[in-house]
Amino acid sequence: MRRVKDAGVVVLAAVLSSLLVACGTTVRVDGAKVDSNVPYLSVLEQAWRDGSASDKYAQLAKETHCWLLRDPSTEALQPRALCGPIRHLSDEGAPGVFDELRFEPKLEGDGQVSVDASTISVGQTGIEPPGGVELYRPDGKAPLAADQVPMPEAPRADRGVVALGDDELLAGGGVPAKNNVIYTPSEDVKVVKFGRVPRLQGGGDAPYYDPAENEEFLAITVEIDRQDGGDETIESSRSYSVRVDGKIKSITENVRDASQATIVASVPIGKDAELIAGVAGLDQTISFRTGERTSKTAAGWYREKSEFDLNKSFDDRVKVGQFECRHRVTFVGMEISAYDRLEGWAPDGQMWVYLDWVDRLTETEPQVTQAGLYQYKDAKIAATGSVAVTVDGRAAGKVVKGEPASEGWNIREGRVLLQVPDSAKEIEITYGPKGTFQARSYTDPSPRNGSFSFTPITFGLSLS
C-alpha cells in the first residue's frame, strides 16, 4: 500500500494558486469559444459527490469542489476535471488529494456545453494537478491545502480474526532458524516467513483493516509439499486450523489444495497463534510468532538422523538327531518413523523403528530313505519370538510384526516393525529364531518330531 506524505503540501498549495483561473477567462471546447460560466461543471460536481466523494473510507476537506483543466496555450478545456481535496483509504501513499473525472462534453450552440451524466466516470484518485494546465472555476476558488485533509482512519478488524493474505505481506519477514517444518504422512508443511504485519488486507469498500484495540497481526507463509501415493483415508483426514487465544478456526478449505499460503491471525498484543496441521487423527502445531514447531508429538520424525545402514548377517545350522536345518538372513538397515501405513501413529512417547532384512533362507536338509523319500517336512520357524529388542539397556521396546519367519521359502526382503520410546539413544537387537520339525507320515526317522533353536546373534546401533 502507498502512504500519504505530508511534506511539501504548503508548496503544492502555492503552486495551485498560481495555476488558478476564473470567470472572464476565455475557454474553448472543441475549438469553439464557450460560456466561461461553464454550467456543466455543476453536473460534474454533483456526479462526483454522489459517487467517489461518498466513499465510506474517504476523508474530505472542509470545502470541496471540482475544477476543469484548461490548456493556457490553446484556451481549451480538457474533457476531464479534478475534484477534491479528498483522501481515500485506498490511496495511501498517493502523491495528491484529487479525484479525476472523465466525461464527454457536447457543444450545443450559443457557447453552451452539455454533459450526459452517463459519460462521467472516475479515473485516477489520489493525484496531483498535471503540469502545463490551469485549474479553472468560474468563481476562482482555490482548493484547500493538502495538509488540511487528514488520512481517513481504517476500520478495525474483528478480534481474533484469521484470514489469508498475499505473500508480499511478509516480504521483509523473518526466516525461522530451526524446527520450522511439520511432517505428516501426506505432506510437509514448512514455514518460510513469519512476523508481524501492520494490517489485514480487505475488500470492497475497505481496502485494509487495522488490528482491533490491544491486538496485533501475526503472519506466517507456509510451503506445503505433498507426498505422492497418499491413500484416501489419509487424504480425507487432512485438516488445517488456527488457534488464537484458546479458540480454533478452520482454514482447511482455504489451504488444503494450496502449495503456498500466507495466513494472518489477530492476537492479543504479546500473545501467539498456532497453525494446526491434522492428519489421521494427530494434530501438530507451529508458532506464528517464531515460525517454529511447538508440538512434541510425532517425535520420531524430528530426530537429527532417521536412517541407518546395517550389515549384520545371521547364518546358522542346527542338528537334532537325523534332523538338520539351516537358516540365514541379513539385516541391512534401520529407519525411524512416527507413522506406519497399517498401524497408524506410534503411541504417545513412542516411535516406530523398521529393521530391514534381505535374503532370508530356511532350508531343511534333504534326509532321504533308501527308497529316496524325504524324511522330514520343511522346518517351521516360529512366527514370533525370534527378535528381541533392548533400548538404552532396558527391555523397553517390543516387536509389532514382520519377523523373518519361514517354512522353507527363500524370501528376498522384508521389515520388522519395532516400537520403542522416542527418546531412545541405543538399540540392541537379539536375533535367535526357534522352530519345530515333523517327520513325514511314510518315514520313521529319529526323532520323528521336536523343536530346535539357532544360536542367537546380538548387535547394537546408536541412534544419535
Topology summary:
Elements lengths: L8 H11 E2 L5 E3 L2 E3 L5 H11 L7 E14 L4 E13 L9 E5 L2 E5 L2 E4 L5 E7 L6 E3 L25 E4 L15 E3 L3 E11 L2 E4 L2 E4 L5 E12 L5 H6 L1 E6 L2 E4 L1 H4 L4 E9 L4 E7 L2 E6 L19 E14 L2 E15 L1 E2 L3 E2 L4 E15 L15 E2 L5 E5 L6 E4 L9 E11 L4 E6 L2 E5 L10 E5 L3 E6 L2
Give the spatial strand order of the biggest sheet: 1-10-4-5-6-9
Task: Please indicate the percent range of residues in DSSP E strands (runs of 2 or more).
Answer: over 45%
Number of domains: 3
The class by helix and strand makeup works out as: mainly beta
Keywords: Signal
Signal peptide: 1-22
Descriptive report:
Keywords: Signal. Residues 1-22 form the signal peptide. With 464 residues, this protein is mainly β. The chain folds into three domains: 9-148, no CATH class; 162-295, Immunoglobulin-like, CATH 2.60.40; 307-462, Immunoglobulin-like, CATH 2.60.40. Helix content is 7%, strand content 48%. It is built from four helices and 34 strands. It has helices spanning 9-19, 40-50, 232-237, 252-255, and strands spanning 20-21, 27-29, 32-34, 58-71, 76-88, 98-102, 105-109, 112-115, 121-127, 134-136, 162-165, 181-183, 187-197, 200-203, 206-209, 215-226, 239-244, 247-250, 260-268, 273-279, 282-287, 307-320, 323-337, 339-340, 344-345, 350-364, 380-381, 387-391, 398-401, 411-421, 426-431, 434-438, 449-453, 457-462. It has a six-stranded mixed β-sheet with strand order 1-10-4-5-6-9. A five-stranded antiparallel β-sheet has the order 11-19-16-13-12, with no helix packed on it. It has a five-stranded antiparallel β-sheet with strand order 22-23-26-30-29, with no helix packed on it. A hairpin with a 2-residue loop joins strand 17 and strand 18 (247-250). The model is unreliable at 1-18 (pLDDT under 50).
